[in-house]
Design brief:
By secondary structure, the chain is mainly beta. The chain is about 10% helix and about 50% strand. The chain has one domain. The protein starts with a strand and ends with a helix. The protein is built from one helix and six strands. It has a six-stranded antiparallel sheet with strand order 1-2-3-4-5-6, with no helix packed on it. Strand 2 and strand 3 form a beta hairpin. The protein is elongated, with a radius of gyration of 20 Å.
Amino acid sequence: MRNRYEGQWHEGLRHGYGTFYYSDGTRYEGEWVENRKEGFSIFTDTTGDVMEAIFKNDRMLARLNKAKEVTITKFIPGEEEEEDKDAED
C-alpha cells in the first residue's frame, strides 16, 4: 500500500480540505494550505486512537482531546523471557 491523498487541490498543491492516508494505516483528515497541514484535523493512528488537533505550518500546535488510556492488567511473558529463564537453569 502507498501513501495517497484525497481532497482539494490548488495549483498542484494540497489546499483546502482533504484526507491523507499513510501507508502504515494512519490517517490525517483536515485542512491544508499549500501542501502543509494547517488548522483543525482528526488524526487516526494504527491502533484506532483518534486525535483531534490544531496544526500550524505542518506541525501540531495543540491536541484537543485526551489520549486513550490503556490499563495493563496482567503481564504475559513472551518467548524471549521464557528462553532466558531456560538458559539460567
